[in-house]
């Protein structure tokens, strides 16, 4: 027989529960609503968030650029290795991160209320934020799914995603995802990449001291970078070792024996930029576009030996440049087929990463006359033809020679060698603007050119040094157009042979510039070819030329287009060119045999105003005759 009390007990309990719910119906309703909302939110998170995002590769793989000798000289892009497995790591590696970032990781549910309370007390005493309360799970939620925004709303989102991660994954899976995706500074993501970047080894081989140093970086990856800030990184690593002793992950003897950590900065020391690297990177990225782990080692045409020669020559010759009010310099060196082997876009990349060899559009001055005279040669002219030197006016424009010199009749060779502006204008008028523009296009100039602008004869149309040097390379190679390239796999093939007689005549003209003209400062122990260029008010000065199997273009000037102090192309640019070539010849990097000597059938047609010049009437006779 069941006692009366036992029969009535459920009814009493139900009545009491009902009475409680009635009295506190608002609170009970809110609790049920919150529970339902939490359930819905967790279901939504599970359906919408990719739980393996932290394990995914970066959108683009890191690039390691190699010079022509196979040596790395620059790196580009962020770096991430495949995910790590906790069971494959030495115990001291995850222990280092847990000791400094989240000691209660294996005991909390994703949000550590005890840790939050402790951080609040510490921060209140310090009157500033010195300790965070985020768990490793929360950091994973933030890094994988949220923006860096600092707000209460985002902290709430972080906590909810952390709870969801704890429900879906094991603790080791969460820790592995965290270690595989955390940022370690210098464009490095994940423990696998960090171990290779800073210590040149896989994470499975990290020592206690190395693990402590990497764990210490998480707080401030930039300020605790062991390459740039070794003292701060070392002090932080010792703090991690102390924390590992406190959590009994290490004994004091083991921590003390960790000793000094040596950073192997082979990869970390590689610059992330450089004038050549900046120029070639867009081409390389397009070829290796797509997600992936690790890095791609990309061969380039850069010759590290010639690059160093260029840098030394510029550093030496630019020492007195301030007196001449020369602020900047650019150099391009390429083989006759367009293979760029050295590039300098300014005096100092760290201070001025703007690449003046590629990005700067400047007037080439008389260096553009190469195309004017090529048009004349195509029209039947020859280097020995005589041209009248009297002043000429074309469409209201009357050119003058440098420092007012001129007025004499000159052969085409001498006029080109002396950079005579008046005769260049006459040659331009005779050949015609369209023919001059076509000559420039045929040699590889793609910058805008106006056929109806007679000042084009003196190089007033802007171009860049890389493009201009490529055009001179066409003369050196005998094939056109020459398109400069920086990857061996991208060498252009669509070229045509230059007319041998016209090329021989151009070699004659370019050789005369160096031997007896404005480019005498560029003379070498072997035949050299080139052309000077100086723009109005000495705003630009250039020398572009070649010898052996190397073509080099040099520009000096100022970024604000302010005038230099009477600096001309035959001065500093020609001397830099000469010093680069001299060092290259001495090092065996420039061929001793140059382009073929000009051999062509001499022709003497009626060409640019070569008719006999009328005799002048003496001034005394003009006065008598009233002329």
Task: Please provide a written account of the structure.
By secondary structure, the protein is an alpha+beta fold. The chain has helices at residues 4-23, 25-48, 92-101, 113-126, 136-145, 152-168, 171-181, 191-199, 208-217, 230-246, 252-257, 275-287, 304-317, 369-378, 412-417, 421-431, 433-442, 465-477, 500-516, 572-586, 619-625; strands at 62-66, 72-76, 79-80, 188-189, 295-299, 328-334, 340-344, 386-387, 410-411, 479-480, 496-497, 529-534, 540-547, 550-557. 42% of the residues lie in helices and 10% in strands. The strands form five sheets. It has a five-stranded antiparallel β-sheet with strand order 7-6-14-13-12, sandwiched between helices. It has a three-stranded mixed β-sheet with strand order 2-1-5, covered by helices on one side. A hairpin with a 2-residue loop joins β13 and β14. α5 (136-145) crosses α6, α5 packs across α7 and α14 (369-378) packs across α16.
Q: Quick check: average pLDDT?
A: 85
Spatial extent as radius of gyration:
37 Å
Strand count, sense and barrel status of the largest sheet are: 5 strands, antiparallel
What amount of the residues lies in strands? Answer: 5-15%
